[in-house]
Amino acid sequence: MSLARRDLSKIILATVFAAFSFTTVAAQELNEADIKRLALEAILEKPEILIEALSILQERENAALVEAQSTALTELRDDFAQNAPIFGNLDGSVTLVEFFDYNCGYCRRAEPEVKAVLETSKDVRIVYREFPILGPGSEIAARASLAARNQGKYQQFHEAMMALNGQAFEASVMEVAGDVGLDLEVLKTDMQSDLVNDHIAASLRLAEALRITGTPTFVLGDEIIPGVIERGTLLEKIAALVPE
């Protein structure tokens, strides 16, 4: 039995005993068969017990997730910007980190919001973490994007990929690379460099530690924000973090 199922079983039994006013001593006097029978009878009589138990389990899991993420943020905050493309005010007092995938439709929807924030706020820098989790095409795109730094064209390539009409795969990635003026032969070599490998490996490690499983995901201050976030909300959150 998995940990979650064991926890749920305990919570259901605890909820049953609470609902029917059983004491801990009384519970200890019951054998396993009696407990299972009692739990089944209670659930049949009061099905809402299951909903209550599931709600308690969800609350516990959410609390554990928040605690784990908070600990990881404290330990790893200095790692976000290492070997990463950074834009905006490089000396800004607020850092916005984005984990993204070029094949993620929501990431493409978030791009105008991020650009608007960079154009509006003078106190923020954005750290891009390439997080290719949506298949081989995503990794090719991430490698090409990171390799484009060596030719001084990361931003142009990044924006062109975010505006891509269709999926990123080798042919479409190379077409975009050519359109923005990248030397394709140099790019293909640089895509296998240690810097590219290290960035992707670090993104995967950071995401695992922070329990990030989807894109886009933003890290801002002590918050981990999954999904598309509107520019106005982002600007409000950034303004709240700017030192007075």
**CATH hierarchy: architecture of the largest domain:** 3-Layer(aba) Sandwich
Distance between the termini: 52 Å
Give the helix level as a range of percent: 55-70%
Radius of gyration: 24 Å
Report the strand count: 5
Q: Quick one: CATH superfamily of the largest domain? A: Glutaredoxin
**Main beta sheet strand tally, sense and closure:** 5 strands, mixed
What does the model show?
Mean pLDDT is 86; it is low at 21-25. β2, α5 and β3 form a beta-alpha-beta unit. The protein has a five-stranded mixed sheet with strand order 1-3-2-4-5. The chain is 60% helix and 10% strand. With 244 residues, the protein is of the alpha+beta class. It folds into two domains: 3-78, no CATH class; 81-241, Glutaredoxin (3-Layer(aba) Sandwich). α1 packs across α4 (48-76). It is elongated and about 75 Å long. It has helices at 3-19, 24-28, 32-45, 48-76, 105-120, 136-147, 154-162, 170-179, 184-190, 194-210, 231-241, and strands spanning 86-88, 94-100, 124-130, 217-220, 223-226.
Describe the secondary structure blueprint for this structure:
Blueprint: H1 3-19, H2 24-28, H3 32-45, H4 48-76, E1 86-88, E2 94-100, H5 105-120, E3 124-130, H6 136-147, H7 154-162, H8 170-179, H9 184-190, H10 194-210, E4 217-220, E5 223-226, H11 231-241
